[in-house]
Amino acid sequence: MGEIDSVASLERLPLQFGFATRPYGGAAVSGDHHTVCPFPGGILIVVVDGLGHGEEAAVAARLAIATAEASPGQSLNQLFTQCNGALSATRGAVMSAMTIDIRAQTMVWAAIGNVDAALFRVDAEGRRKRHSIVMIGGVIGSRMLNIRPTTLAIVPGDTIVFATDGIRDDFGDMVAGQTAPQLLANEILARCGKTTDDALVVVARWIGDTHS
Questions:
Q1: Helix H or strand E encompassing 160
Q2: Cα separation of 107 and 211, whole Å?
Q3: How many CB atoms lie within 10 A of CB 151?
Q4: For a Cys-Cys bond, which of 24, 95, 114, 139 suits 53, CB 3.0-4.6 Å?
Q5: Element of type H or E holding 136
Q6: Domain edges within the chain
Q7: How confident is the model at residue 143 (pLDDT cuts 50, 70, 90)?
Q8: d(Cα 33, Cα 53) in Å, to the nearest integer?
Q9: Domain 7-206 CATH class label
Q10: In 71-104, which positions are buried (b, 16+ CB within 10 angstroms) versus exposed (e)?
Q11: Average pLDDT over every residue of 28-51
Q12: 3-class SS at 105?
């Protein structure tokens, strides 16, 4: 389901989703890739940035996505370890990943390298709170360090944004209200996307498990 091949399956999830991407310099391929992959009881979201840009970066990113999709229900520690081994013959990549436990309404996320991610929540008084992913330095396929997974409870309306380093780090300023995820992704790319690298933004909004 890399790059969202099955929209119908996503429509059955308690999650709204959107993404926007642009390759560097109008190239035919991008080194920034993602997947939203359902598995029994949960959802895996992975965003990968192959080092550099062009075809070699795309090869590394695609391989990381394929590795993640092969076993989407595994722990994040297992996922990062498997991707690190799979990418050993490539130029490497940086990656953020998140799993959602649908029934428990919790999420676990972790990052190696600078694929940023943040959860935005508006409380009952209308105040916006931000929780940021912990990014550990390293490269998948080369010098990966131990990840530091963080667990958060999620509530309906929470918005999670992933952004590769082709997106300026002030992307969070654009998250307000309940703008549809696809519209928000488009807007972030248009306003915060850099012209010096591949760029990808992924937006997910938790709407809650209607079957619990």
A1: strand 159-163
A2: 18
A3: 11
A4: 24
A5: strand 135-136
A6: 7-206
A7: confident
A8: 12
A9: alpha beta
A10: ebebebeebbbbbbebbeebbbbbbbbbbbebee
A11: 97
A12: coil
**Contact assessment for residue 162 and residue 115, using Cβ atoms and an 8 Å cutoff:** yes
Q: Which two tokens stand for residue 30?
A: 């991008």
Query: What's the CA gap between 144 and 84, in Å, rounded?
Result: 7
Both tokens of 190, joined, read 């248009």
> Over the range 106-137, which residues count as b (16 or more CB within 10 Å of their CB) and which as e?
ebbbbbbbebbbbbbbbeeeeeeeeeebebbe
**DSSP letter, residue 108:** E
Which has the closest alpha carbon to 211: 103, 107, 101? 103
**In three state form, how does the secondary structure of 15-82 look?**
EEEEEEEECHHHCCCCCEEEEEEEECCEEEEEEEEECCCCHHHHHHHHHHHHHHHHCCCCCHHHHHHH
pLDDT at 209: 61
pLDDT per residue over 57-76, tens digit each? 999 999 999 999 999 999 99
* CB of 19 closer than 8 Å to CB of 4: yes
Residue 191 predicted with pLDDT over 60: yes
